[in-house]
Design brief:
6-stranded parallel sheet; single chain; alpha/beta; 6 strands; 11 helices; elongated
C-alpha cells in the first residue's frame, strides 16, 4: 500500500491585495500545497503562526508592523519556516531577514517555478536565496561578519570563503567543484578544513556555526 504524502501547509502574508489573491490562487492549485491562512501585516504573522502553525510562511517585508521582529519571535515560539517573497532588493534587508530567522529570500520578479523550489527547499531545512539577487554582496556581508565575530581566531582563505558562499546558496559538492573548476575531492578536502576551523562535525554544522557567529551582529540589526 502506497502512503499518500501530506501536503505542505502555507501561510501567505502580503499587504497588497492583488498580489496576495494571485499568489493564493496559484499555490492552492498546486498538488503539494495547502493554504492554511492569509494575512496582511506583521501582527498577522504572529497571530496566524500561534493559531495555525503552518509549515511555511511566505511573507513580504514592506507591510504594517515590524516584520523582522515578528519573524524572530515566531521562529522562537513554533517550528515553522519563513520564506521572504519581496520586491525589496536591498542586501541589508536580506541579511536582516536571514539573521531574524528566515530560511529563504526570493524576489518577486522570480518565476513561479523558482518560488515553488524555494518553498520545498526551506521546508526540508535548506536555505534558498534567489541566485540572481546580489548574491556576492550578501555573501561578502556574511563572511565579513563571520571573520569579525570570530575575533581573528578563524582565518578563511579566499577559496574557503568561496566555498562557504556557495554552501549558503545550497550548492552540492559537485556543483561547487564545477563552479570553481576544481575537483570534487578537493572540495571535500576544503570541507574537512572548514569543519576543523569552525569546530563543526559535518556540512550542516559548518553553516550553523557561520550563522551563529553572524547572528549576534547587532550592527546589522540596527540598520
Amino acid at each position: 500500500m502506497v502512503r499518500k504524502m501530506s501536503k505542505i501547509s502555507l501561510a501567505l502574508i502580503d499587504d497588497h491585495p492583488v498580489m496576495l489573491a494571485g499568489l493564493t490562487e496559484i499555490l492552492k492549485g498546486h498538488p503539494k500545497f495547502t493554504i492554511a491562512a492569509t494575512g496582511s501585516s506583521a501582527e498577522d504573522v504572529l497571530e496566524i503562526g500561534l493559531k495555525c502553525a503552518p509549515d511555511v510562511f511566505i511573507v513580504d517585508l514592506m507591510m504594517p508592523g515590524n516584520i523582522f521582529d515578528a519573524i524572530a519571535k515566531l521562529v522562537e515560539k513554533i517550528r515553522t519556516k519563513i520564506l521572504v517573497f519581496t520586491a525589496n532588493t536591498g542586501s541589508d534587508y536580506a541579511v536582516r531577514a536571514l539573521n531574524a530567522g528566515a530560511s529563504g529570500y526570493v524576489l518577486k520578479g522570480s518565476s513561479i517555478q523558482e518560488l515553488i523550489q524555494a518553498i520545498a527547499a526551506v521546508h526540508r531545512g535548506d536555505m534558498f536565496i534567489t541566485p540572481a539577487f546580489a548574491c556576492k554582496v550578501i555573501e561578502e556581508l556574511k563572511l565579513a561578519s563571520l571573520r569579525k565575530k570570530a575575533g581573528g581566531e578563524v582565518k578563511l582563505s579566499i577559496r574557503e570563503g568561496q566555498i562557504i558562499s556557495m554552501l549558503l546558496r545550497g550548492f552540492t559538492n559537485k556543483q561547487i567543484a564545477t563552479g570553481l573548476n576544481i575537483g570534487e575531492k578537493t572540495v571535500k578536502n576544503y570541507m574537512t578544513i572548514l569543519m576543523q576551523k569552525l569546530n563543526a562535525r559535518n556540512r550542516l554544522e559548518v553553516l550553523i556555526a557561520a550563522q551563529k557567529l553572524e547572528g549576534s551582529d547587532q550592527a546589522l540589526s540596527r540598520h
